[in-house]
Design brief:
Layout lengths: L1 H29 L2 H9 L6 H10 L16 H4 L2 H5 L17 H36 L4 H15 L2 H15 L15 H31 L2 H8 L4 H12 L1 H14 L5 H7 L4 H10 L3 H29 L7
Helix pairs in contact: 1-15, 2-3, 6-9, 7-9, 8-9, 10-11, 12-15, 13-14, 14-15
Length: 325
C-alpha cells in the first residue's frame, strides 16, 4: 500500500508541473505584465512610468524565465516564473496584486465554503440514494416512469432558477431566512439554511437519476438472481446486496468531491454573499487580480489529484477483491 501511494504521488508531480506551466503561459505570455498593468490601472492612456511602477511594486519587473544579469542560482530564482509559480509547490501563495496575503485569505475563507459544501454533500447523498432506492423498488411502474420524467425536468432547470426562486419564496415572501449575508460563530446557521436547501434540491435531479442507473445495473446481475432464488424478498435484496455492491461507484463520486469542497461554490457564494473561496475567486476574476486566480487554479489541481488518490485507496475498504500493490 505504501509503495502504491508513493508511486501515485510521484505521478502527480509531472501533472502539477504541467498545470503550473500552462497557467504561467496563460498569465504571463499570452497576457503580459504590461497588459496586466494597463488593466489594473484602469485608464485609457497609461504612462510608461506608471506601468513600470506598478510592475516593480508587484515583482513583475523581472525577466520571465531566465535572468541574464543575475549570477549563480539567481539566474533562475530572480525571475517571475520562480517567484510566482515555483513557490506554489511549497504552498507559498504570496501576495495578491492588491497587496493581501493570499494564504491568510484562503485559511479564513475556506470555513464558510465548508459550512455550505459539507451539509450539501451529506444531506444530498442521503436524499439522492434514498430516492433512488425508492424508485428502483417500484421499477417498471408508473411511479418509476413519472419519477424519471420529474428528474429529467429538474436536471434541465438552471441552478440559478433554484437560487432565485428560493430567495423569493423563503426570504422575500415568507421572511423565514435572510436573503443573503453571513455571520461568524453559531449565528451563521440562519444564513446557511437557504444555500444548503437549494444546493440539495438543485442536485436531486442529477444525483438521483445517476444512483437509479447504478442500482438498476446491479439488479440485473447474477448474485441478485441467486439471492432471490434463496427466497429473499426484494426489499432485503435491494438494501443488503444491491446497495452494498454499488458502493464503489458511489464512493468514487463522493471521494473525488471531498477535496474540492474547499474550493467552494462560485455561483452559490456569489448570490448569497458568503465570504468563501468561491466568491473569493469570482471577485479576483472581476478585479483582474491574477495572483489569486493562479493560486486558486493550482490549489484546485492539488485537491483534485488528492481526491483521485483517496478514491483508489478507498476501493480496498469497500471491495476486498481490490488489492493495491
Amino acid at each position: 500500500m505504501s509503495a502504491y501511494i508513493i508511486r501515485r504521488l510521484l505521478y502527480a508531480i509531472p501533472i502539477l508541473i504541467g498545470v503550473n506551466l500552462i497557467t504561467f503561459l496563460l498569465f504571463f505570455v499570452v497576457n503580459s505584465p504590461d497588459d496586466m498593468a494597463r488593466m489594473q490601472l484602469g485608464v485609457k492612456r497609461v504612462t510608461p512610468e506608471a506601468i513600470a511602477t506598478w510592475k516593480q511594486e508587484r515583482g513583475y519587473d523581472r525577466p520571465l524565465l531566465f535572468n541574464r544579469e543575475a549570477t549563480g542560482p539567481n539566474k533562475i530564482a530572480d525571475t517571475i516564473f520562480f517567484a510566482k509559480s515555483v513557490r506554489l509547490f511549497a504552498f507559498d501563495f504570496g501576495s495578491s496584486d492588491s497587496g493581501r496575503d493570499i494564504g491568510f485569505d484562503i485559511s479564513q475563507r475556506m470555513w464558510p465554503s465548508l459550512a455550505i459544501a459539507v451539509p450539501v454533500l451529506l444531506v444530498g447523498l442521503a436524499v439522492n440514494i434514498s430516492l433512488a432506492l425508492f424508485i428502483v423498488f417500484f421499477r417498471a411502474t408508473y411511479i418509476d416512469y413519472a419519477s424519471v420524467v420529474l428528474l429529467v425536468a429538474m436536471m434541465s432547470v438552471s441552478g440559478l432558477f433554484y437560487i432565485i426562486g428560493g430567495q423569493y419564496l423563503l426570504s422575500k415572501l415568507f421572511h423565514l431566512v435572510p436573503i443573503s449575508g453571513y455571520d461568524t460563530g453559531l449565528g451563521a446557521w440562519k444564513f446557511l439554511v437557504l444555500p444548503v436547501i437549494i444546493g440539495v434540491i438543485g442536485g436531486v435531479g442529477t444525483g438521483t437519476r445517476w444512483y437509479r442507473t447504478l442500482f438498476l445495473e446491479e439488479i440485473g446481475k447474477d448474485y441478485v438472481r441467486t439471492a432471490r432464488a434463496k427466497g429473499l424478498g426484494d426489499r432485503l435484496v435491494l438494501f443488503r446486496h444491491v446497495l452494498r455492491n454499488a458502493l464503489i461507484p458511489i464512493l468514487t463520486g463522493v471521494v473525488v468531491v471531498l477535496p474540492l469542497l474547499f474550493m467552494g461554490s462560485l455561483i452559490t457564494e456569489s448570490f448569497f454573499g458568503i465570504p468563501g473561496l468561491g466568491s473569493y475567486t469570482i471577485d479576483a476574476i472581476n478585479n483582474q487580480d491574477f495572483a489569486i486566480v493562479r493560486a486558486m487554479v493550482f490549489l484546485g489541481s492539488v485537491l483534485y489529484i488528492l481526491g483521485l488518490l483517496l478514491t483508489d485507496i478507498s476501493y480496498t475498504l469497500v471491495d476486498p477483491r481490490v488489492r493495491l500493490g
